[in-house]
Amino acid sequence: MTESGWCCKCCFKFIITAGFAALFLWLSLRTRKPKCSIESFYIPALNQSLNSSSNSTTLYFDLRLKNQNKDKSVYYDTIYLNFTLLDEARRPVGNLTVPGFHQGRDKKALRKESVEARGVDWKAVSRNGSTIVRLDLATAVRYKILLWKTKRENLRLGTEIKVNGQGLKDNPHGITLNSGAAMPGGSLVRVIWSFWVFVWWKFL
Ligand SMILES: *[C@@H]1O[C@H](CO)[C@@H](O)[C@H](O)[C@H]1NC(C)=O
Ligand SMILES: *[C@@H]1O[C@H](CO)[C@@H](O)[C@H](O)[C@H]1NC(C)=O
Ligand SMILES: *[C@@H]1O[C@H](CO)[C@@H](O)[C@H](O)[C@H]1NC(C)=O
Ligand SMILES: *[C@@H]1O[C@H](CO)[C@@H](O)[C@H](O)[C@H]1NC(C)=O
Ligand SMILES: *[C@@H]1O[C@H](CO)[C@@H](O)[C@H](O)[C@H]1NC(C)=O
Ligand SMILES: *[C@@H]1O[C@H](CO)[C@@H](O)[C@H](O)[C@H]1NC(C)=O
């Protein structure tokens, strides 16, 4: 066998090995962000059938947090929630913090919360018909991979919730909070992976 033939074979083997190593590394380090959704939402002040002396300004909701990783647990930092009434003034109506916690692999959590919505004339809002409330969520998460934890990764999500004349969210299903922004990947693993794909197409 010529020297160049041996070199070529060796090079081929190296590329294949490096490629699989990168693939397995990528598969084991890849993380998926938690999925957050609003499962129920109720503003008694907007329930038009409730004509009693109810002057409650409380806003009730269930926040669902799902760890989408089957082999990594998630550490949540304190979760900040802001509610904004989307009328012309876009008034902030309430803030809430949910304490951080550790969530096991592939687990989900339901947080039943309520917030006192101040400074809003709910009677006037109710008379106006449908209402839209915006929810913004901010936290940071770390993932535990085997024995070590990743760096903090910011999680900023939001959604708009349409509220009907019963004071309930219009959508009967859970409302998933989304980020609007693309996933900020940019990890070294991704670079190695792209390089390997490039080499694969170019030379094999
Ligand atoms: C709205 O008020 C009515 C009358 O009290 C009550 O029957 C109904 O359950 C309330 N709606 C919700 C979603 O709680
Ligand atoms: C308020 O509720 C009572 C029964 O609880 C009902 O008789 C009355 O008609 C209601 N009023 C309005 C304005 O809906
Ligand atoms: C709500 O109603 C209670 C009694 O029904 C009253 O004492 C209280 O002042 C009211 N609150 C507001 C903000 O109107
Ligand atoms: C929400 O929090 C900010 C900053 O802590 C505060 O300025 C604002 O008044 C709060 N809004 C409501 C509606 O509580
Ligand atoms: C009611 O709707 C009108 C028109 O959309 C808007 O100008 C007004 O600010 C609303 N009022 C309340 C209390 O939401
Ligand atoms: C909530 O509102 C406060 C004050 O307006 C702001 O500093 C914070 O970034 C907001 N949080 C979210 C999650 O939007």
From TrEMBL:
GO cellular component: plasma membrane; plasmodesma
InterPro entries named among the record's database cross-references: NDR1-like (IPR044839)
A single BP term in Gene Ontology: defense response to other organism
Transmembrane segments: 12-29
Location of the protein in the cell: Membrane
Top-level taxon: Eukaryota
Keyword terms, alphabetized: Membrane, Transmembrane, Transmembrane helix
PANTHER family named among the record's database cross-references: LATE EMBRYOGENESIS ABUNDANT (LEA) HYDROXYPROLINE-RICH GLYCOPROTEIN FAMILY-RELATED, OS05G0367900 PROTEIN
Protein name: Protein NDR1-like
Organism: Cucumis melo (Muskmelon)
Gene assigned in the entry: LOC103494933
